């Protein structure tokens, strides 16, 4: 695949969807991915209406994603023991979370190699989370869960993991544990 002078073999191209219930933090998570991969120099903010993914006027006004939006980021493993050392292209698809746009999410799921399901640590698995999970099952989309909003009041990491087991019927393998919760949550400060 050749995009603006970058040739990446098809076996190193991945279509990855960001899927979740409304307000779980899909677009905000995507903005950080774009920042950390060097795709953008500044993290966009939904409240300021300057995210890369929510480009329509209606999306900026309402603060929600209405149509799926795609962008590309490149990543090269840097660890010396990494199995792959070549650059990979990730086509990132930020999907809507509102129930009214469920068909838009399903349309996107058909082309995904994998999905990141974003969960709000304060709310756990919500109704639209269950819907997009079933849709991903239908299209055999492998998923990884990302528990977001650990700094909000009522955030509960283990309750969210339990929710994934009970409501989604998924087996989980915890890959990272948060440091703290709510106002004691430790995260790196990223310049905006």
UniProtKB/TrEMBL annotation:
Q: By its UniProt entry, which SUPFAM superfamilies does this protein fall under?
A: P-loop containing nucleoside triphosphate hydrolases
One Gene Ontology MF term? GTP binding
Under Pfam families, the record lists:
GTP_EFTU
Per UniProt, residues of the Tr-type G domain are 11-192
Keyword field contains Protein biosynthesis:
yes
Keyword Ubl conjugation (UniProt): no
Q: Which UniProt keywords apply?
A: Elongation factor, GTP-binding, Nucleotide-binding, Protein biosynthesis
Swiss-Prot/TrEMBL GO biological process terms: ribosome disassembly
What PANTHER family has UniProt attached to this entry? Answer: RIBOSOME-RELEASING FACTOR 2, MITOCHONDRIAL (PTHR43261:SF1), TRANSLATION ELONGATION FACTOR G-RELATED (PTHR43261)
What is this protein identified as?
Answer: Elongation factor G
Q: Which organism is it from?
A: Candidatus Collierbacteria bacterium GW2011_GWA2_44_99
